[in-house]
């Protein structure tokens, strides 16, 4: 069941809910979703919740949701940038928004810069 990222997110969510001693009904009411929807997420029949809902889960379940946020981002094909440097966050966001339009040469140059093989 943990073979895919989606299965991992659902499995992690179910473990966190059970550890907190919460029922599907209790958690689904907090998230304003149906029990069947929450169950489908836990069983990987539906995609991971967005970050805002995962943060609500953190309050409801009383645990650190960072691993679930990271698993959800990975499932959605995103990257979690964990930096307190606004410039790093802005660059990452810019690449996420416009990365599809960069040429392979520019992407290779960015990679060399990041690897320290070239100076800006």
CATH C-level class of the largest domain is Mainly Alpha
Q: Please identify the oligomeric state.
A: single chain
- How is the main sheet built? none
Secondary-structure element order, N to C: HHHHHHH
Mean pLDDT: 85
Distance between the termini: 45 Å
Helix content: 55-70%
Low-confidence stretches: 1-5
Q: Based on DSSP secondary structure assignment, what is the total number of beta strands?
A: 0
Produce the secondary structure layout.
Blueprint: H1 5-19, H2 24-31, H3 35-42, H4 51-61, H5 66-75, H6 86-98, H7 104-114
From the structure above, extract its key features.
single chain; 120 residues; mainly alpha; 434 Repressor (Amino-terminal Domain); 7 helices; 0% strand; disordered N terminus
Question: What's a quick, concise take on this entry?
Answer:
This protein is mostly helical and 120 residues long. It is built from 7 helices and no strands. The relative contact order is 0.11.
Please give a structural write-up.
The protein has 120 residues and is mainly alpha-helical. The chain folds into 2 domains: 5-75, Orthogonal Bundle (434 Repressor (Amino-terminal Domain)), CATH 1.10.260.40; 81-120, no CATH class. Helix content is 63%, strand content 0%. It contains 7 helices and no strands. Helix 1 (5-19) packs antiparallel against helix 5 (66-75). The protein is elongated and about 55 Å long. The chain starts with a helix and ends in a 6-residue tail after the last helix.
């Amino acid at each position: 069941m943990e073979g895919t990222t989606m299965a991992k997110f659902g499995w992690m969510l179910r473990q966190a809910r059970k550890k907190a001693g919460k029922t599907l009904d209790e958690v689904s009411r907090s998230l304003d979703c149906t029990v069947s929807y929450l169950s489908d997420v836990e069983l990987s029949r539906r995609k991971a919740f967005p970050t805002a809902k995962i943060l609500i889960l953190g309050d409801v379940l009383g645990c650190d949701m960072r691993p679930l946020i990271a698993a959800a981002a990975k499932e959605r094909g995103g990257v979690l940038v964990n930096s307190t440097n606004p410039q790093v966050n802005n660059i990452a966001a810019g690449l996420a928004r416009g990365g599809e339009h960069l040429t392979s040469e520019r992407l290779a140059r960015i990679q060399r810069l990041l690897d320290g093989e070239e100076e800006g």
